[in-house]
Amino acid sequence: MHNILSNAVKFSPKNGLINISSKIIKSGFNKPKWLLAIKDDGIGIPFEIQGFVFDQFTQAQLPGTEGETPTGLGLYFAKKTMEQHGGRIWFESVENKGPLFLLNCLPISFYLLMVKLIQLLLLFR
What we know:
125 residues; alpha+beta; four-stranded antiparallel β-sheet; 3 helices; 4 strands; 30% helix
């Protein structure tokens, strides 16, 4: 969660917009899951590197809008963390339009993510 939000800030223009929304997804006999969506109006993820952004030590790296240096680990750890909590993370992106990151997890995991989100938002104030 921290990485997704910090990337949204890092790759968005100054005074850029970051939208965060959530909803409960119910499907058949499965337990309901929470869906968290984070959308920014930044530079987007070029098509040619989209298949690699969740890889460990990925070379699919771009500098931030202020020249910040990437490590190639943030999205890898975000994906591993979501999977360890029974969740999933994916994105939709078009170059030069900010990506939409989606996180899907069980309600208790989502609760813990929301607590972390509130803590992070307080840090970015």
